[in-house]
Amino acid sequence: MAASATDLFRKITNNFSTTLTSSIGSGDVTLSLASVTNLPTDTAIDLVIDRVDSTGTKTPTKREYVLGVVSGSNLISVVRGKGNSTAQAHASGAVVEYVFDQDVHNDLVTGVLNSMNQDGSLIGSAVRTALNQTAATGAGWTTLGYTPNTVVYNGNRSYTCTINAIDATGTLSPGMRIQTTRTVTAPTKSTSLNGTTQYYSKTSPAGMTFTNNFVVSAWVKLSSYVNGAIAGRLDAAGSNGWGLYINGSGQVSLFGKNGGASNNKNIISYQSIPLNKWVHVAAQLDMTSATNSPTVNYIMIDGVDVPASQASSGTAPTSLVQGTDLGIGRPGSYPSDYFPGKIAQVAIYSAKVTQATILASISQTLTGSETSLISAYSFNNTINDLNTTNANNLTANNGAVATNADTPFTQTNGLTGYTVGTTNFGIVTASSFSTNTTLTVQVPEGDTLPTTGGISAVSYSTQKVPYGFPGQKTKWQLTTLIYSPLTVGASATTWYSGATTGAGSFALAVPVGEWDAWYDFEIYTDGNASTSTIHKTTLSTTAGTETDVMWGVQQFIGTITNAAGGPFFESQHSRRRSISTSAQTTYYANMLFSGSIGNPRFSNGGASFITAENAYL
């Protein structure tokens, strides 16, 4: 006769038993044990306290299931009140066992048997409870039971999460979906500006007196390529002030002016930002230096330092003069250059800020008390300054409002059972286990994992699209593009990557994991009426070098005749392949040409781009 489910449950025991050597309260997470002899060798151990008293008598009202890690004679990092039990106080000498409680699990088995061929969800619930696991909100998720001790942002929506003193071997692996809950609810709103009339202003802002060394950052979701200011303080004539812009080619720029519209010092990215996606931008400008480096002048896009150039014009200023009004969505008092799209989390600093500090601040709302911060604006249903000391509260102009239900921080699609602003999703792209569990997690566009403020719960799923998971491919793509012509060096048969002055100005930093990657390049060179040329391109892990011939595309272009504006050669190159990275790896767009030609460049009216899409989708 086949064994019943109840009989099978009774067999799950190894007779381990010990006692507590000291009393514990309901919140204690370390248990001192009299012995660990014969305790199972699993890293995470399920035990029950006070199932029976010292005489073997059952004590159902005191019974508590726990899960912890053995360290010496202690059970540490204990999760209390597992299964159907309640965390409570236990006295020294309480019996601690590795055994299933028959009273509890007989009830579970009865529930399973009664639900056969009736309600599969009841079966799943019973099995999860029997395994001391619980279902997260929504179908397809299982609560991990542990939360990260540290979360570090790597840039390009990749995070390293470390769970101390837990080895999750056999539970988590690359490709699994992750759902996290924020301890502190993230902002759920932003401002959406029409690009023609709407902006915010502050007359004579307090504390804004810097003349050199300043940083401006923001989350933006650009709707069209125009010359638009994210933030600035420029006078009406455009002669004095500063501004953080996205120009008509989608490039990020930060400038300072002094005594004339043409007296300008600026830094500008070679790369452009994509349209209709949340992107974090940050720029630092030292008016006295022409050095591009993370400690002097930089531009960051989504937490990655991107190649940029500096320029001065007119009477090259070494300091700036503050303009009149501060503006968000328009550069202060200058009556033009309106920003089209959404803005959140604008921050203005009066000193240099390390890129590490920028990385640490991207994933959650600013506090207003950050070092050197003059003013910051969340636009989360408010236009007041987060820095209450300066309190440069804004005035809305021409119907601008901070109530748009869109945010770079969390899903806002109103899923049943979720609190808006608390839930984030990701894919495990790498994992390592020993004493600690370390996960690399990739999140989609419109999500971040808080690096401060905390994660209060983590759930995982082996399903491809568990409830609520954003499975749109476009949310999991990383793209860098060049929309403005980018000229490279002029020597034939030489690999180039970007600007004439150096390599690496057109590149994509690919995070850890498995990726489907591709590129599409528009290549242009000038020529004459009797020449021909070869255009060759590749995607390479080294700037100005071909490191993998399988990325290469070569095209021969024959003799051409004069055309309006002069003769030129044009070719379109593309290639798609899979790549695997064990560390964040930069892939450079490289090109080579032959023959007597001039002015070789990426793009000349269209976009050249590199894209990587998460391969675990």
How is the secondary structure organized here?
Elements: H1 5-10, E1 13-19, E2 31-32, E3 44-49, E4 64-71, E5 74-82, E6 95-99, H2 102-115, H3 120-130, E7 142-143, E8 150-155, E9 158-163, E10 177-182, E11 191-194, E12 199-202, E13 214-222, E14 228-234, E15 241-246, E16 251-257, E17 264-272, E18 279-285, E19 298-301, E20 304-306, E21 308-313, E22 326-328, E23 340-349, H4 355-361, E24 373-377, E25 395-397, E26 423-433, E27 437-442, E28 455-461, E29 477-482, E30 486-487, E31 507-510, E32 513-526, E33 533-540, E34 553-557, E35 568-581, E36 585-593, E37 598-602, E38 608-614
Helix pairs in contact: 2-3
Could you explain the architecture of this structure?
- The structure is a single chain.
- This protein is mainly beta.
- Helix content is 6%, strand content 39%.
- The strands form six sheets. It has an eight-stranded antiparallel beta sheet, with no helix packed on it.
- Helix 2 runs antiparallel to helix 3 (120-130).
- The chain starts with a helix and ends with a strand.
- Mean pLDDT is 87; it is low at 1-13 and 101-135.
What is the typical, i.e. mean, pLDDT? 87
DSSP, total strands: 38
Order of the strands making up the biggest sheet: 21-17-16-15-14-22-12-25
Report the C-alpha radius of gyration, rounded. Answer: 30 Å
Alpha-carbon distance between the two ends: 46 Å
**In terms of per-residue confidence, which ranges show pLDDT below 50 for 5 or more consecutive residues?**
1-13, 101-135
What's the helical proportion of residues? under 10%
Let me know the largest β-sheet.
Answer: 8 strands, antiparallel
Question: Helix count, per DSSP?
Answer: 4
Shape: globular
Helix/strand class: mainly beta
